[in-house]
Design brief:
about 1000 residues, 44 strands, 6-stranded mixed sheet, 7-stranded mixed sheet, alpha/beta, binds iron/sulfur cluster
């Protein structure tokens, strides 16, 4: 635990005296209308010539747009329906549940039965529904002729393809190559083998810019084969992360976060303890009991040290071979790290079979192999760790695959290249000029959702169907097969990957549905003979019993490590030898979600940065390099360099700098940037500046995830970044009175020992005179009395709830410049507080929606009664009464009200942008300019639940009405319900001794309260 108990919100606040008002005050920014360019960005959807009813290529016939003369059974207009489907990302699938209004998917949640979702969903899953209706999506086939891209009809493409691919079949596919992303889909695998049977001499390459081949390779080192690892975090008493964002970036992170939260219940005496060693602050690091900022290059020696110590202490089984020799690493001499490791090793040693050691995806295979070994040494296998059979692929790593394809092209062996859902011109490492390679291939065909960088360099383009538009299947991380069912006919005539393979190989089954049914025949059964089998699988969204079988392979000894320069170095930074980490962006992933305004504007969980990537540097490294926040610097590694802005962030390891991939797109769309090369397909696209810098340019054979040897050259130039760091701070009076005094009242925490001694510790954080009321008390509510509880002990800061709220409530994005002014519109924000040393900080995440105060200060100042108290205790907003005085926002101590300075939806009236309106939730008003808005506890869901209960002549059940944020939360940190029901979950939580209100001394009596954070530090570490 940190010695320094002071909380702070930003480095600026940490460095300044509490009396100085460094944070941005509300409403002090000028009120200018958005520029044309800004408008394009916040509307995120300029220029789409789509008339919905007559969209070219749409599979719905115009004559179908007629009223039903006979109502289809079970379809009631205006009543939403829910369907299961699945989404694949980087070769792993997550099961989802989609809400659909009159054939229009509008909201995504997790499939409760899916092993990797358990009903939760992340920010990216939530945001894919916006991507579905993105007018920037490719809207048809096209071809490149004489340097210009021309629209083409599907028939034209089919005529070309029939002739071209039948000729290729005649030559057994010689000269044909396919480049596809990684996929776990049984149907894709089936189509791939059929493809290879038809084109036996064709080559197939798999390239995924974000992939974890190291885990696979580590498994081969450890077991001689690939296994899948399943972790039972709910059973683990000690969790050790070796640069692994266990709760945030694994395919099964949603389920792991839920299991982790189950093991963090101080009331039941169940409190795991986590130790996290990582180079940058992650979701897992943010909730760690002990976190140490350590360069990624040091993790290998750290793992070896743990093996050496634990193997000797616990007596590793002889079959595991000799442990790693203790490395002579300088960084291990650091007294603080040494003390932490000594205590952690003792902690692990006394709890055999009750811990988990996890290596991060970026770590080399040896570290993964050692993690397998450490779990065996700690007797975790069979209790907290299980292995399942994996797919033993002999595929090369993605980097090797792309390099091999590049060489094949260079050698003139590829005459036709089919690229399926991959954008290598943008994502290829800087030492592969894939655009130049493509230019050498006589026939190139690219299937993509957007007319992206690779499409611009290809002769033919096939529009790809969105996953919500096509049939498919995918495996979860445990191997369970999920069915991906379409929720809507393809808006732009897109085809799925399997349909394209079927079309080009003249497969006997052209439809995606038939292909999926054929490939799943062995597991689902003969659906033609018994359609109920198929209906059940589609209804459930998965095929039960398809998880991989347990694997009990024996571990092999791991050879002693050899260390490269830097892996045994000290903790201090060396200016010309910085470690550079390139990682997928937590929001935009590899860049495929870059054109999604919800994600682009979502504050990053660790940095609070929106609309940009930046070079993340620790405060001490920044000082050493002479760089400051927002300074533009030249980042160099070997021959490549990039100009990037600097963001100085707490918790970044000394001597390690980090840059996220996924930005700097040149053909993404109107949100993320688009430079027109060779003319646009449809003529009306505007050029848009790129957002952020393209970090792929720095990737190379030497640097894939991280490498040593980077340097940073400062400049005098500045770059403006839009962070939400110091915006909307609670209660400016707090600044005057003293932040140091105020913040421990806002975020209350104790150690487990303190909590056990004083379960009511939260009551002692604030002492105030008796709270007197101006109103007649007590206020009685006859019916429902809604309330919410948010458990700080469970919130990882993942921000899934923020995007869920945005999707549910038709909340607009406003663009970078407006975010800079503090005018972002999200109704829910995640306040993030640091404590202690900025190099090794502790973190608290606090979601802050409208508190629905009993004595609401907003209601008392509204001159027109636009905000008023409902008979169920909600602070209602009557939008058409609001005249925009903003008195309510000024009077809100929590700063949760958001004002529409402009009509952010105005351009949606234009025909070309109308498709975006399909994402709107019809149950929620779309607000206009000059209107104040804020969290409503999803009042539309409350009403819907009450109507349903009334129709069924019963009372509402506890848990029947849930808010959007609650639904998405992987850790179930948010609980909503009726406070008048003493048996409700929310009532139970409100009576928990950890329950407290924000700013309770103001006597506004918020309905949303918090459960205080309890950390479980190792007592040996004080
Ligand atoms: S409350 Fe929100 S930010 Fe916190 S874990 Fe849940 S979804 Fe993520």
């Amino acid at each position: 635990m940190n010695e320094d108990k002071r909380y702070w919100r930003s480095l600026a606040e940490h460095a300044t005296s509490p009396q100085q008002d460094e944070v941005q005050p509300e409403f002090e920014t000028p009120l200018e209308p958005p520029t044309q360019e800004e408008r394009r960005h916040f509307l995120k959807l300029t220029a789409a010539s789509v008339a919905l009813a007559g969209a070219a290529g749409c599979r719905w016939q115009e004559d179908h747009l007629l009223p039903h003369t006979q109502q289809p059974e079970g379809v009631v207009p205006g009543i939403p329906r829910y369907f299961m489907t699945a989404m694949e990302l980087g070769g792993a699938g997550v099961g989802l549940r989609v809400k659909s209004y009159d054939g229009r998917p509008i909201k995504i949640d997790g499939n409760p039965a899916h092993p990797d979702s358990l009903g939760a969903s992340g920010a990216r899953h939530q945001a894919t529904v916006l991507g579905l209706y993105d007018p920037d999506r490719s809207r048809g086939f096209s071809s490149l002729a004489e340097g210009r891209r021309q629209p083409a009809s599907e028939t034209e493409f089919r005529v070309f393809a029939r002739e071209h691919f039948s000729a290729l079949r005649g030559q057994k596919g010689r000269g044909l190559a396919v480049l596809a992303g990684e996929s776990s889909s049984p149907s894709v695998a089936d189509m791939k083998s059929r493809w290879q049977a038809r084109f036996p001499e064709a080559r197939w390459f798999e390239y995924e810019p974000v992939s974890s081949p190291n885990e696979r390779l580590g498994s081969k080192l450890a077991f001689g084969k690939v296994v899948r690892t399943r972790l039972a975090l709910d059973k683990a008493k000690v969790i050790v992360s070796l640069d692994a964002d266990i709760l945030g970036s694994r395919p099964d992170s949603l389920a792991l976060a839920r299991a982790w939260a189950k093991g963090r219940q101080p009331e039941s005496g169940k409190m795991s303890r986590s130790y996290v060693f990582e180079s940058s602050l992650s979701e897992t690091g943010a909730v760690a009991d002990h976190r140490f900022s350590l360069r990624a290059e040091h993790i290998k020696a750290l793992a070896a040290y743990l093996d050496s110590e634990l193997s000797h202490r616990l007596g590793a089984p002889a079959a595991l071979g000799a442990p790693q020799p203790a490395p002579a690493a300088k960084f291990l001499e650091d007294p603080a790290l040494r003390k932490l490791l000594t205590a952690m090793i003792a902690d692990l040693a006394i709890q055999p079979g009750a811990s988990v050691v996890v290596a991060g995806a970026a770590q080399p295979p040896e570290v993964h192999a050692l993690a397998y070994r450490l779990n065996a040494v700690l007797r975790n296998v069979g209790s907290t760790v299980q292995y399942l059979e994996g797919i033993d692929s002999s595929e090369p790593s993605p980097a090797e695959a792309l390099r091999a394809l590049n060489e094949e092209i260079g050698a003139g062996h590829v005459q036709t290249l089919l690229i399926l859902d991959s954008n290598p011109v943008y994502t290829a490492p800087g030492d592969i000029d894939f655009a130049a390679a493509l230019a050498k291939v006589p026939t190139t065909i690219c299937a993509s959702l957007y007319a992206d960088e690779t499409v611009n360099a290809c002769k033919w383009h096939i529009p790809l169907a969105h996953f919500l538009e096509a049939w498919g299947d995918v495996r979860a991380s445990d191997g369970t097969i999920s069915i991906q069912q379409p929720l809507i006919a393809p808006l732009y005539g897109g085809k799925s990957t399997i349909e394209i393979l079927a079309m080009l190989s003249s497969d006997e089954l052209p439809s995606g549905l038939e292909i999926v049914q054929r490939s799943l025949l062995p597991v689902v059964g003969n659906v033609a003979a018994d359609p109920r089998l198929w209906r059940k699988a589609v209804h459930d969204g998965l095929v039960p019993g398809t998880a991989a079988a347990p694997d009990h392979s024996a571990l092999r000894p791991v050879a002693p490590f050899e260390y490269a320069r830097g892996e045994l170095s000290g903790l201090e930074a060396e200016p010309g030898q910085l470690e550079l980490v390139l990682a997928p962006d937590p929001k935009l992933y590899d860049g495929r979600f870059a054109n999604n305004g919800w994600l682009m504007e979502l504050p990053d969980g660790a940095t609070k940065l929106t609309w940009d990537n930046a070079l993340l540097v620790s405060p001490s490294t920044a000082k050493l390099l002479g760089v400051t926040d927002s300074m533009l610097v030249t980042l160099s590694l070997e021959t490549e360099s990039l100009t990037v802005p600097v963001l100085v962030v707490p918790g970044q390891a000394t001597g390690s700098v980090k840059l996220y991939l996924g930005y700097g797109r040149t053909a993404a769309g109107s949100v993320a940037g688009r430079a027109i090369a060779g003319g646009s397909v449809h003529g009306e696209w505007d050029e848009q500046p790129s957002i952020g810098v393209n970090a792929y340019r720095l990737r190379s054979k030497r640097l894939w995830d991280f490498a040593r040897g980077a340097s940073v050259k400062p400049s005098s130039d500045k770059y403006r970044m839009a962070t939400t760091q110091d915006k909307h701070t609670i209660d400016r009076i707090g600044k005057v009175l003293g932040t140091e005094d105020r913040l421990p009242m806002l975020v209350r925490e104790a150690t487990l020992t303190e909590y056990e001694e004083h379960p009511d510790f939260v009551k002692h954080a604030v002492h105030h005179p008796p709270l007197l009321s101006l109103w007649k008390e007590p206020v009685k509510y006859e019916g429902h009395r809604w309330g919410m509880s948010i458990d700080l002990n469970k919130c990882t800061g993942c921000s899934g709830c923020v995007v869920a709220c945005q999707a549910e409530n038709n909340i607009p994005t406003v663009g970078k410049d407006r975010v800079y002014m503090g005018r972002e519109m999200q109704w829910l924000r995640i306040d993030r507080y640091f404590k202690g040393d900025p190099e090794q900080p502790e973190v608290v995440n606090q979601p802050v929606p409208c508190m629905q105060c009993e004595h609401a200060p907003c209601e008392q100042v509204c001159p027109v009664g636009a905000t008023s108290h409902s008979h169920e205790g909600l602070n209602d907003m009557t939008y058409n009464r609001c005249i925009g005085t903003r008195y309510c926002s000024n009077n809100c101590p929590y700063k949760v009200r958001k004002f529409n300075y402009f009509n952010f939806h105005e351009d949606l009236k234009e025909e070309k942008n109308q498709v975006q309106q399909m994402v709107y939730n019809p149950e929620v008003t779309v607000r206009f300019r000059g209107v104040m808005e804020k969290c409503t506890y999803c009042v539309q869901r409350i009403q819907e639940g009450k109507f349903r209960a009334s129709r069924e002549n019963r009372t509402l059940r506890d848990g029947e009405v849930t808010t959007a944020c609650q639904d998405s939360c992987p850790t179930q940190a948010i609980v909503f319900g009726d406070l008048n029901d003493p048996k409700s979950e929310v009532s139970r939580l409100k009576s928990n001794s950890r329950d407290y209100s924000l700013l309770e001394e103001l006597n506004v009596r918020p309905r949303t309260t918090y459960l205080a954070l309890v950390r479980n530090p190792n007592p040996e570490l004080g």
